[in-house]
Amino acid sequence: MVGRIHSYRYDPGRYEFTMEWAEPKNARGESVIYFPDVVGLDRGAMHFVPAGGTATVEVIEGSRAGFVHIPAGGHQQMRQVIMASQKTEPGLGG
Fold first, then answer.
1. Are strands 30-35 and 16-23 parallel, antiparallel or unpaired?
2. Contacts for 6 with CB less than 8 Å, ≥ 6 apart
3. Is pLDDT of 93 > 60?
4. Which long-range contacts (CB under 8 A, 24 or more apart) does 11-18 make?
5. Taking phi first (over 0 means left), then psi (-120 to 50 degrees means alpha), and beta for anything else, what does residue 30 get?
């Protein structure tokens, strides 16, 4: 993570993962979050606070697991990402 994690949680009823972290002044690089099922992520429903955040998804070859890469914002700020799964099968959403 670029910065310090303040909280994270998974809501199994909504199939939703939320993470909040503080990025330091002059933050560079990217935060990387591992997921057991990135294939099932609803990439169109990723929500960032502050608005305008982006992410790329990397799938580990031969599996459904992978990483979500979130570029640093470049300045001191609190950030949050909310990601939901499209799936109800075993993995992130089940």
1. unpaired
2. 20, 21, 22, 78
3. no
4. 14/84, 15/84, 15/85, 15/87, 15/88, 15/92, 15/93, 15/94, 16/82, 16/83, 16/84, 16/85, 17/82, 17/83, 17/84, 17/85, 17/92, 18/80, 18/81, 18/82, 18/83
5. beta
The amino acid occupying position 92 is: L
* pLDDT tens for each residue of 38-68: 888 888 889 999 988 899 999 999 999 999 9
- Is 70 exposed, middle or buried (CB count within 10 Å of its CB: 0-12, 13-18, 19+)? buried
